[in-house]
Amino acid sequence: MTDEFYLLQPPRFSEEQLEFLIHNAKDYQITHGSLLKLVRAEEEHSVPTRPVGVSLVPSQFPRKCFEQGVRIQGIYNELYAKVASDEAWLAQALKDYIRDDPFTSILWEIYLESKRTNFSHRRISLGVFRSDYMIHLHKEQTSATHATRVDAELKQVEFNAFSCAGGTHANIVANMHQHLHKIGAYRTTFGNIDTSSSSLPPNDGINGIVRGLVSAHHAYYASNRNAPTRTGVLFIVQGRNFNICDERPLEYALWDQNTPIPAYRLIFGPDVIEQTSIGPSGELLFNSPTCPFSPLEISVVYMRAGYELEEYDDVGCAARLRLEGSRAVKCPSILSHITTFKKVQQELTKAGALERFIDESKCKDIRSTFAPLYPLDKSEQGLIGRKLALNPDTAGNHVLKPSLEGGGHNIYGRDIPNFLAETPEEIWHTFVLMEIIRSPTQSGMLMSPRGLYEGPVLSELGVLGTSLWSEGSEFEIMENDYVGWTFKSKAEDVNEMSVVKGYGCFDSPWLVDVP
Amino acid sequence: MTDEFYLLQPPRFSEEQLEFLIHNAKDYQITHGSLLKLVRAEEEHSVPTRPVGVSLVPSQFPRKCFEQGVRIQGIYNELYAKVASDEAWLAQALKDYIRDDPFTSILWEIYLESKRTNFSHRRISLGVFRSDYMIHLHKEQTSATHATRVDAELKQVEFNAFSCAGGTHANIVANMHQHLHKIGAYRTTFGNIDTSSSSLPPNDGINGIVRGLVSAHHAYYASNRNAPTRTGVLFIVQGRNFNICDERPLEYALWDQNTPIPAYRLIFGPDVIEQTSIGPSGELLFNSPTCPFSPLEISVVYMRAGYELEEYDDVGCAARLRLEGSRAVKCPSILSHITTFKKVQQELTKAGALERFIDESKCKDIRSTFAPLYPLDKSEQGLIGRKLALNPDTAGNHVLKPSLEGGGHNIYGRDIPNFLAETPEEIWHTFVLMEIIRSPTQSGMLMSPRGLYEGPVLSELGVLGTSLWSEGSEFEIMENDYVGWTFKSKAEDVNEMSVVKGYGCFDSPWLVDVP
Question: Which positions does UniProt annotate for Mg(2+) binding (chains A, B) (predicted)?
Fold first, then answer.
């Protein structure tokens, strides 16, 4: 069922127009690395790929909401940089998890251990953040006429502070939609509606993320005057990676700087132990048999792995400690990493929480994007949350999420009471309850390795930001930027936004002015 | 067996270095469209691809020969522009073919027919040329010491004037080798040999070819003052195309001009008849249901199809006539097309032939790249050719090639006498006999869908050039440029350089100073 919120007609294509569109989209993807690597079919000498899932037509999105997300990203960057620098607040907010949850306790332990190493120097951290939103339709009856007024509100789904993916894919697909628009693939569809390029916002996410890495690289020099002329950025990655096309362009862009910045990849785990060492001043050294600059002093560690508990066996823990304990700028640090847990998101919705970190004037902008969030512990808020979750009528308006990062394990609406009935009460506190975001659907067309889909779709906007800050004698934010966006759509009846599984499709927002 | 001509040691990699190199090469290819489309496995919603064959390590090539090829490309451009404008000379050179060979006679007939349409306007033609060379080792004993002196000479394999492929792939693979060099993948291999980037010549082939198309586009305006503001370039292509990655980037670059130049694709054959028409002044109009600018006046027709006899059924002939008879700039015209036949190459080796077209001072430069070529007809030269071909001893030093364009049907060395014995003498004249180019082999490493190959390889350099000229009241060359190169290597024991079959691998010349 398609909502009637959006005013534009759904796209209508003749068979020839659709064929033209598909043909052009596939060829664009092939020629621009908009692909998924089929790692299971990889051979030494070759590897097959397929186009990543995309929306064939940009999906409508309220212009004011998009602009709001862009405008407040600087505040979110500041907020999370400050939260990540507030050990005491995090220790309090996550105390149950540090005690009971294996992943949180491992990370916290590594953090504490890393503090025991020599931290005399100023600590610099880089955050590459992505704040994910959906549109919430807020309906209210005007008291005078009893007519229903509908307002579109930007509501945060989650905040990602670790290993944010999709920036490169989103950039390429944004360029693809601009190209398809330019060649006229959409002209005959939307008729006389404004299809100027201002409706398709530009996306410079690749360069934006890279500017963050470059700033961090230079900041490392500035704060380590003994650093050698050549230092480099180390990408910590997973071994068999479908999503290589999302990572590699960032490395290429570093190498392509006027003064090339060496960028190498290292698989999280044993390789980190074998191919790095810590120098006399805490510098991280990359000693790879394939790196001609070996030992290469590392300025920035960029994490694209290490986000799953399974990666933290003894060697994984030692690897993370090696990285965290070094002088290198971490993107992100462990304290930044744990800000990504949904428990932190929920703690920030508590009255007065934001005010600890940012000016009152900014709190309102941030708070307006919060959907109501409840813990399921035995606190006052937790008891409210439990009540909402256990009553099938109120549960229907909520989603139950594991408090730690990582999607795909959510429980929706009326399934929640049964789920809780089968779940020991002792671990209820590892979930948060979020009011469902009632996002408008629209008619869309998705193309992914799963097939072609035409029908109602739901979209999610991710706003990308970078923040570079230092701690030590004083806290200072050195850089704070909005850098681009991701935008994904999925069939309405699918709960997952997973790109690798072919459900989530990269898309562009077609900005429209709504009431 | 590897020749000992090249002075550098063959590359030696540790297992880790090789893995690093392969890994980086594959990822670079995936992210930069260095791919072949697996058209047989294409589905409506998806299409698998694989990396195109590449040489993992640039192959050595004498610097002086590379520079010679670049230097003389302007002369070759001029020569072929003039040959393509000399109907009388072509009619004489190809008279047997126009009479007997189905493909030549079809093209000639279309050309004559197109002349009957209104040709009052100045005719402008664009050539995108590729002159293919191999290194010939010329050995002579010095009379004084009886020592053998070896000299490397650049010898032309063939000259391509129609639908030259590989420019985009070569550009991307050149960039890949530069990148692999930058990240240090070759440093530990070649030791102290000069590995500055001057050894890896830049390749800007994509932009170069596009500059040619853009010049032709503007020249169309200049000579057709009534042309509408918006005209576009039409790519005439094959329907199911493995090699889409070689073509599409040229279109994108046209769209990405400051003032975008519309570029659309049209499949050679019935689609040309259905989706084009000729306007009142001979202008070619593109009337596609998917083109929002329809009818779009076409400034330049860029042919990437129509090079095989099989494409010229009645509809194919009508399609080519429609294009050729229009006002649009053809890339190439039919007369340019037929200059690509090897018979023309052989005719140009005749004494005095070059002097008809270009200054005497330039003839020497061109002639020095000719390998001895003979017809097998009953002319004086032809009788010499027959004698060489029929004697197994002299045949061993030759290769027999069909006189028309297209590789893969060559007969080599001692197989020639038997082949001729089984071939009716009446069609001997459809072959030319070329002295074998004795190219030095070197140790190489190739990676293609066929597998990894380590062993002796042979390389072929293609020099890309564009030429824009006009005919009418007077002949004028308006543009004449060297624009880039292609470089391919194959295993020594394979005769084919086919990229689609996985034999020919894109490579870069590693320029070395040889005696």
Answer: 405
Helical residues (DSSP H) of B194-333, grouped into ranges: 205-223, 244-255, 270-275, 314-324
* Tokens coding A192: 């006389």
Contact B46 A449 (CB under 8 A): yes
> Could you tell me if A426 lies within 8 Å of chain B, comparing CB atoms?
no
Stretches where chain B sits below pLDDT 70 are: 1-3, 7-11, 118-121, 188-197, 405-408, 515
Measure CB to CB from residue A30 to each of B27, B245, B449 and give the nearest one: B245
> A241-285, pLDDT tens digit by residue?
899 999 999 999 999 999 999 999 999 999 999 999 999 989 999
Q: Give the pair of three-digit tokens for residue B494.
A: 């394979």
Closest CA to B263 of B302, B216, B295: B302
Domain membership of residue A422 as a residue range: 372-436
**Does residue A207 fall inside a structural domain?**
yes
Q: Could you tell me if A165 and A262 lie in one domain? A: yes
A424/A478 same-domain check: no
d(C-alpha B411, C-alpha B400), whole Å? 5
pLDDT below 70 — which residues of chain A?
1-3, 7-11, 118-121, 188-197, 405-408, 515
SS3 A106: helix
| Number of residues in chain A | 515
B270 falls within a domain: yes
A239 inside 8 A of chain B by CB? no
Q: What is the number of structural domains in chain A?
A: 2
The answer to whether position B395 is within a domain reads: no
Please tell me the pTM assigned to this model.
Answer: 0.95
Last residue of some domain: A381, A413, A436?
A: A436
- CA distances, A376 to each of A128, A342, A401, A415, B482 (Å): 30, 12, 10, 16, 71
Phi, psi of B207 (to 5 degrees): -60, -35
Strand A505-506 to A476-491 pairing: antiparallel
Mark yes or no for CB contact B45/A448 under 8 Å: yes
Question: A499 and A386, same structural domain?
Answer: no
**Integer Cα distance of B207 and B171 in angstroms:** 9
Query: Cis peptide before B295, with omega less than 30 degrees from 0?
Result: yes
A272's tokens: 């980190």
Residue A309 CB burial class (10 angstroms; 0-12, 13-18, ≥19) = middle
DSSP string, B76-95: HHHHHHHHTT-HHHHHHHTH
Give the separation between CA A30 and CA A35, rounded to whole angstroms.
7
The ipTM value here is: 0.95
Residues of B with CB below 8 A from A291's CB? 184
Is there a single domain that holds both residue A49 and residue A182? yes
| Number of CB atoms found within 10 A of residue B7's CB | 11
| B226 domain-assigned | yes
Burial of A277 (0-12, 13-18, 19+ CB in 10 A): middle
Enumerate residues 6+ apart whose C-beta is below 8 A from B122: B223, B470, B471, B472, B473
Per-residue exposure over B417-433, b if at least 16 CB sit within 10 Å of its own CB, e if not: beebeeeeeeebbbbbb
B77 to chain A nearest CA, in Å? 30
Residue A192 CB burial class (10 angstroms; 0-12, 13-18, ≥19): exposed
Q: Give the DSSP per-residue string, B118-172.
A: ---SPEEEEEEEEEEEEEEEEEEE-TTT-PEEEEEEEEEEEEE-SS---HHHHHH
Domain boundary among A414, A436, A458: A436
Q: What is the DSSP letter of B500?
A: T
Residue of A14, A45, A242 to mutate for B, most B C-beta atoms under 10 A: A45
Question: Is the N-terminal amide bond of A201 cis, ω within 30° of 0?
Answer: no
Q: Mind listing the pLDDT tens digit for each residue in B365-379?
A: 999 999 999 999 999
